[in-house]
Amino acid sequence: GPVLMIVGLLVVWQGLYWVAGDIALRSPAQTVRFAFTLLARESFWLHMIESGKAFAAAIAIAIVVGMLIGLSLGFSRLFGQVFEPMLVALYSIPKVTLYPILLLTFGLGISAKIAFGAIHGIIPIALFTINAVRNVRPILIKTGRALNYTTGEMVWRILIPAALPEIFTGIRIGVSLTLIGTLLGEMFASQRGLGYTLMNAMGLHNVDIIMSITFILIVFAMLVSGVLLAMDRRLHRRV
């Protein structure tokens, strides 16, 4: 299970360190020690808080906008047939090519990082929501119409509860992609954040900081992914 996977990764990591040496890598023990050293620095926490704010805002926007688009296109067959291929086409575009446009629009601040992170998560969440709404059992829709539900009531009382497990799967994937997008935004054009710190360390070939920040991000991503995966499985078991 997960424990064996983690142990295997640590063994491979230690083996690579023995092969590459201190020039390219640090051992797991060295990385963990320096990570705690970084976490004890107030200046490092300023960068973590900056990244946390950008990520939280980006994922909130991605979830809200993605679900609104998905519910609208999934509920309307005509709009879905017209706009879903456009979403798929947009999703295939490398997001890096859009970053100069975002910089011109939002400037060199947290807004550009939030926007860049959000565009990574909006489309996957929207596509999963579209499919989730389309897979809702027709009898539920007929029941809502028989009860004379308005469109808003139909969405809130029938579509969202019935489609929630599949929608949550899209949110889980969207969270991972939004985190990647936010960090990339900080790496390309930012003056604060973990991505900015990581890029500076790469320029200075500071292996300790590179390895430690990477380790911290991996631990954070694994924890968030583990919690979301457990919630996802619980929702699917209720269906």
Descriptive key words:
single chain, 239 residues, mainly alpha
Low-confidence regions: none
Order of helical and strand elements: HHHHHHHHHH
Radius of gyration, rounded? Answer: 21 Å
Overall average residue pLDDT: 86
Report how far the terminal alpha carbons are from each other: 25 Å
Description:
It is a single chain. This protein is mostly helical and 239 residues long. It starts with a helix and ends with a helix. The chain is elongated. The protein is built from ten helices and no strands. The mean pLDDT is 86.
Q: Which helices and strands, and how do they pair?
A:
Blueprint: H1 2-20, H2 28-39, H3 42-75, H4 77-92, H5 99-106, H6 110-134, H7 138-146, H8 151-188, H9 194-204, H10 207-238
Helix pairs in contact: 2-10, 3-4, 3-6, 3-8, 3-9, 4-6, 5-6, 6-8, 7-8, 8-9, 8-10, 9-10
Short description:
The protein is an all-alpha fold and 239 residues long. The chain is built from ten helices and no strands. It has helices spanning 2-20, 28-39, 42-75, 77-92, 99-106, 110-134, 138-146, 151-188, 194-204, 207-238.
